[in-house]
Each structure stands twice: as structure tokens, then as C-alpha cells.
Predict the structure.
Amino acid sequence: MIEIMVPGRGGYRLEHLVLDVNGTVALEGQLIDGVTRRLAELRRLIAVHLITADTRGRQEIIDAQLGLEAVRIAPGDEAAQKAAFVQQLGGKSVCAVGNGAIDAAMLRDAELAIAVLGEEGLATSALTAADVVVPTINAALDLLLSPLRLVATLRR
């Protein structure tokens, strides 16, 4: 669990990390450098979940590289499926990370929402649903590995 006390906002008790795959932790079906190491560190602190429509058809490879099994969503209303997954985990204990329009609902339902402005860009709906915006997935994961950075960003 990752516990963070943020002045003016209260405490966060994060038990789950939900990560969009394509455009967030992977680019064109390939894991972004540095993600594997950071996720290995985070898995000692928090349950890590990947969620994907597997647009590139490479999720089995990514799963093997990370030692995880992604939740695959079916075609049609992908945004609602992602949000339902976050709700199923108990949104108050979830940090969600994404970049796309179909990630916006899951970001809104998570206690802590991080939007990634990566090489695929960032949908404005995901931007407005986020608590924090970062330039890369590695920056997002580093915030969780060094939570005092989040305190500095989120305090009121």
C-alpha cells in the first residue's frame, strides 16, 4: 500500500494501480524503456493491473515481459469497461494512469488520477479528469515511488 497525506486534501491509501497499456506504458505495442524496472519496484508496494483493448495485438508479449496478466476489454464502450474495473477494485483505493479519451472515465473514478502526455498525445477529456499531468509514464511511476513529489504537487 502507498499512503500519502496531502495538506488540504487529506490522505490517500492506494492499494491498486491501474494502467492503460497502449499509449501509456507501451508505444506502438512496445513497452517504453524504464517501465519494467519501475513496475517491479511498485509491485512490492501496490497491486498493479494492466487494462487494454489490445489494439496492437501484442499484449501477450507485454504480459510476459512484466510478469502480469492484463485485463482485456471487449470492443464497444471501452470507457465504461475501464471505469467499471476501477469501481470493482474500489475507486477510493485506486490510482489510475492513462492518456486516451477512453481512459477519462476510469481516471474520474479513481482516487488518484494521473494523465500521461506521451508520444501519442493526451486526450483533453483525460486531461480534465486527472489530478496530475506528467510528460511520461516513467514520471508517473516515479511519483508513486517517491510520493512526497505528489504532496508537493497536490497540496492546497
